[in-house]
Amino acid sequence: MKTTKTAIAAGLFASLFAGTALAQDKTLNMIVIEGGDTTAMQAVADAYEAANPGVTINLQPYPFAQFFQVAELRLRSADAGIDLVYVDAPLLASYASRGFLSAIDAGIDTSVLVPAAVEAGRYDGTLYALPINNSAQVLFYNKALFEAGGVTPPAGLTAGESATQAEVDALASGERWTWEQVAEAARVLTVKDGGRTTTYGFTVEQFGELYQLQPFGESLGTDVIGPDGYTAGGYLDSEAWIEAATFWSDLYNAWGVSPKSLGYGEAAALFGNGQLAMFAGGTWNLPILGATDIDFGVAPYPYFEGGAVLTPTGSWYVGVNAASANQAESMDFARYLTTDAEGTRIWFDSLQQLPTYRPLLEEISTAAAFDAFPQNVFRLGVYDSLNTAKARPVTAAYGQLQDAFRTAFVDIANGVPVADALASAVQRFESAAARVAP
Amino acid sequence: MTRSRSPVLLIAALLAPALIGLVVFRLYPIALAVSDSFFNVLRGQPVFVGLDNYLSLLADSTFWKSMQVTFWFNLLINPIQIALALGLALLYVQQFRGVTLYRILFLIPIGVSLPTAVIIWRIMLSQDGLVNGVLGIAGIPAQPWLTSEALALYSIIAIATWKGISYWMIFIIGGLQTIAPEIYDAARLDGVRPWQRLVFITIPLLRPTLLFVLVADVSINFLLFAPIFMLTQGGPADSTNVLMYEAYKSGFIFGDMGRAMAIIVVVVAILLVIVGLQFKLLAGREARP
After folding, report:
1. Can you identify the CATH homologous superfamily of domain B64-241+268-286?
2. Do the chains contact at A400 and B56, CB–CB below 8 Å?
3. Which of A110, A129, A209, B217 qualifies as a FRET site for B183, CA 20 to 30 Å off?
4. ipTM given for this complex
């Protein structure tokens, strides 16, 4: 009997000892979107691990289409298996209001970040997430397809040319194409062979997504939802949105210039194969397109004739899961990723997203290294983020809005009448939002 | 009488594995769903709301539209699947040249996993896919199989039927093989025609098998989710938005578990009523002769 006791005591002691030894080596788990984001995050993680022996960053990538649901589920169940969370800007309110995120360490210096981006990380006055980068949308065009179709391409930045920030500002403020011009060119450039379309004139990168299409209706004068965050009637079904959605419907149904139901990354693939003349997409496509042999140009994000120039903005944040057992270590990696000269540089070099780290933005505007194409495209992003960027609405029902909006615009592309689809989106959003409204 | 030990313990021990599985994987989740349906989560805290989630469903047009879609879907798919499965089973037990090839062909769908089958069908039914290509040869214009309000639900019925019937066919074959051949021999001697043999001998004697297939098939189709999740997400214009998908969206996309669980409880209740009716109508007559 005594031997058994001794054995148990020895076992306990040994396991305690092993426990302390393991505590030195921390593994931080982070959920991210698979693809370019994961590659970039891995590069930052590798550099961080090299500088911080004993810390391992384990990335858990999920496809874009499932990411939001996985994040929602795992955060709601207080899953301690996640330490760091990739947070989409408009979902911050929803996460923070439910206590999913820890308040950001006051010791982290946020003065090096763009103030507007830091503000969007606050909820009820408390900072819950740090901006990893901003986003900028542009119009990519295939020069060879324009030439073959005998159409003059939009004024833009192209290979072999350089542009100062002042020249880019002049381009963005004076020579921006309208959506009407895009549609006219797209109709000429679309090639149909029998019943099949072999070259499409135009598409948006994110099919039916609010992020990409919010400027459509808003540039015509009406916000997508009301200032209370829970009303869509009179907004999403307004004249402005009906006009915008009719244009969207025509792209697919009347003119047939756009491919239906493109998945994540498929627009760039189609463009890279030379089967697409133009697409509106993010600057993150630059490294992907640079690896193809397509000779392309980059023009500013279009607007509707007579409407205001508005462009998509806002991007991903990093937050620390309130249920994580590794708060201090997680905060430190978030600091490195967002406010450290080395971390932000690695991220930018890998993903090519408009930064929120101010020293890097200043460098983009002034350094000679950014005069040449395609680096000067980021100067378009700088202009838009200062002059035309319109953030997505802040509402705890953002997930409901995103879903109702996507459903309506996918349905419209599939031929459902515009007024019906928008009315149904208003009804869906309002009834779902009413259940989370305070 | 030296030993009068009742076999209760033995029976309990033998039934335990099945019963434990039933309780853990069926009854416990149902109880959990019922209890969660009385709560809403506000600011991270569950709040007891009584019957509010059910009452708000009554006034919820999305829910009623979804209920309509669910019933229409089931009214079509279940008779189609069972009739086709019965037809295939009758063919399967025949003896003719090439029957082995036929048997293999109709067993293939069972071997393909549902997600794989759905992905293959999505590719075949796309705008530039195989199905439209074949129609094109016949001079028929390409159809928007999964993207039009008029066709999407029927495309899903077709895919689920393709996947499901051979499975049900196997049960019916089992049932056919329990019918004694002497009965058919006697009928033949009496000059009974083939269709009379089917209506007056085969189907009545198959009733217990058909009852099982009907109940199981209706339950599975009422709870069908994967093809809708993978192909249409309830669209276009809610035309494929069955209650299971509506509940999924409510719970897992909007984080509104209270509403999701209330929908699930309603689905289970409807299913219980339907299954109860099926037993009453089919099994009741079985007892008469």
Report:
1. MetI-like (1.10.3720.10)
2. no
3. B217
4. 0.74
